[in-house]
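User: Quick sanity check before I run a bigger batch. Here is a single chain. Can you write out its predicted 3D structure?
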Amino acid sequence: MILKVEDLEASYGYLKILHGINLEVKKNDLVAIVGPNGSGKSTTIKTIFGLVKADKGKISFKDHDITNKNPDEIVKHGISYVPQGRMVFQTMSVEENLEMGAYLIGDKEVINDRIEEVYEIFPLLREKRNQKATFLSGGQQQMLSIGRALMLKPELILLDEPSLGLAPKTMVEIFRKIKEINKQGTSVILVEQNAHMALEICNKAYVLERGRIALHDGPELSAKKLVKDLYLGH
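Assistant: Done. Predicted structure follows.
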């Protein structure tokens, strides 16, 4: 077990969002968190990453209590976060963006090696290494955002709606890359509105409804009538 979330509660002001979330991630898991808008999916991983403070509960990563630690401390434990909306540094080049992801690494040679590893996963970024991020397509910016998060070689990466706003063909490519990253040994928590795609690539899934775990199962979750009726649009 590398991540354990126990009885997690979180709020935005007086509005309670999470009501006792429990989830577990083992090494090499690809975990999908699905559910309708407003169910607490993004809030769950933001709370894990310290962007939202927990009201109650415990978050453990490799037996270290990381509950309510700041994101800069959590990154040092081996967790990276890719926010919703492809938040890249628009005026910087692709390579400069990747270098920003390695801000904790002082060795230039190591940084260059990590950049090459990212280019192996995303060859298109190598082609556009000197291009400013603002001129990349949405899918290319998403690749860059994920690549930047990989620069510190995290043991766990948190992905918040990586397919949002992408064309179907690009979406398929992004999910293929996520699966590839997972196969290379990085555990993944994938928050996704596109439940079909998420359940197709995951080995474990949680369905959230109104801030609670409504269902928890393997990828066969998609075959259950409740999920079909409520979340997959059948």
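The mean pLDDT is 91.

User: Great, the batch can go ahead then.
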